[in-house]
Amino acid sequence: MKNLIKILGAFVLLFFVVTTVSSCSNDDDPVNNDFFAGTYKGSISYNDGGSTSISTNNGSVFVTKIASGTKYNFAFSDSIPDLNGVEFEQKGDHTLVMIGSSATSYIRIDNNELKILFIKDGKTWTANCTR
Predict the structure, then answer these.
(1) Segment 80-112, tens digit of pLDDT
(2) Could you give the CA distance from residue 112 to residue 94 in angstroms, rounded to a whole number?
(3) Which residue of 9, 41, 70, 119 is 20 to 30 Å from 128, comparing CA positions?
(4) pLDDT at 17 over 70
(5) How many CB atoms lie within 10 A of CB 120?
């Protein structure tokens, strides 16, 4: 009887793990989800206006939606400083654009693509990434 309970428990655990992993998808839409977390890969760069300049074609940006529902955090690879608490508004059905975007400073995100040209305090972050 104990062995039957152990086997049944193992199957339930296996079912839970498979269901959880298979429910994660690259098609998750950052606009329509209460919780969003996704990794975008591609070219990223950072320049602090001084001695630090980082650039790579094989970088990544991990994007998370924070509790406010309109703010997002961007965690860069390759020792590039993170961007946190950036506020967005919805443009179209599946696209978010940073509030206060201009020709020289913007962040655009959808379920497939991340584009960043962000300038603040003489520091510049860029990203041209896909999922």
Answers:
(1) 999 998 888 888 777 888 888 777 789 999 889
(2) 10
(3) 70
(4) no
(5) 9
pTM exceeding the 0.85 threshold for the entire prediction = no
E-assigned strands of the chain?
37-47, 53-65, 71-76, 83-91, 95-98, 106-109, 113-120, 123-130
Strand 53-65 with 71-76, pairing: antiparallel
Tokens of 12: 């339930």
Cβ pair 96, 89 in contact under 8 A: yes
Q: How many CB atoms lie within 10 A of CB 79?
A: 8
CB 78 within 8 A of CB 101: no
| Residue type at 127 in one-letter notation | A
CB 87 within 8 Å of CB 96:
no
Burial 8-33 (b: 16+ CB within 10 A, else e): eeeeeeeeeeeeeeeeeeeebbbbee
Please report which residue ranges of the chain form alpha helices under DSSP H. Answer: 2-23
How many residues does the structure list for the chain? 131
CA torsion angle 124 32 93 61 (round to 10): 20
